[in-house]
Amino acid sequence: MSGFMSYFGARRDPKQSARDAIVTLRQQLQMIEKKEDHLQKKIEEELKKAKANAVSNKALATAALKRKKASELELDRLAGTRLQLEMQVNTLESANLNAETLAAMKKAASALQTIHGNLNIDKVDATMSTVNEQRELANEIATSLANPIYGMEGIDEDELKQELEELEQDSLNERLSGAEHAPVHLPEGVKEGSRQPVAVEDDEEAQLKELQAALAM
């Protein structure tokens, strides 16, 4: 009665039931294998008896062959039974694996649902939009900080270049003017009135070239 009530009582865990069934089937397979080993030994013994009495005692040899044949038939029947049990074990193991795989997938789906929580595509899009806006703002700030200091934008580079050229020309003129008033040392015996104008002009050109070369450095 207790077994009947337990059968229709509380529902058992399917995983545990599958494991119990697999254990029971494997135990039954072990019993069949032991029985097969016993029958195989018995077949060999009866065959030896039949051979030993084949000439001297044919009746005894015939009886031994009959027992051998009966054992072979039993061995074939047990082989069929063992095959059926092995198929059931494989089926249960496959079904149990499928059930555990499905349970793992359900658990993973539940974990993903918990992780996502209140997330939805609209909230994700809004967050990404905010991120992009802040990135663009950061780029604008960096660009602004890299620009010249305020008040330097109105300076004309061409005007600065022209002014620099004028300063260079003024400096050159001043140096040339000073060279014109410099005293000229004449060799002894040569009068000041006898200086040749061409030599003075060559000297001035040489000084001009030296000044230009110095300014170019």
Give an overview of the whole structure.
The chain is an all-alpha fold. The protein contains six helices and no strands. The protein has helices spanning about 1-10, 15-55, 60-115, 120-145, 155-180, 195-215. α2 runs antiparallel to α3 (about 60-115). It starts with a helix and ends with a helix.
How are the secondary structure elements laid out?
Blueprint: H1 2-8, H2 14-53, H3 58-116, H4 121-146, H5 157-180, H6 197-216
Output the keywords.
elongated, mainly alpha
Mean pLDDT: 80
The oligomeric state is: single chain
Q: What is the molecular shape?
A: elongated
Structural class: mainly alpha
Rg over alpha carbons: 59 Å
Determine the number of helices (DSSP H or I, runs of at least 4 residues): 6
SSE order: HHHHHH
Q: Which percent bin holds the helix content?
A: over 70%
Alpha-carbon distance between the two ends: 119 Å
In total, the number of strands is 0
Please report which band the strand proportion falls in: under 5%, 5-15%, 15-25%, 25-35%, 35-45% or over 45%: under 5%
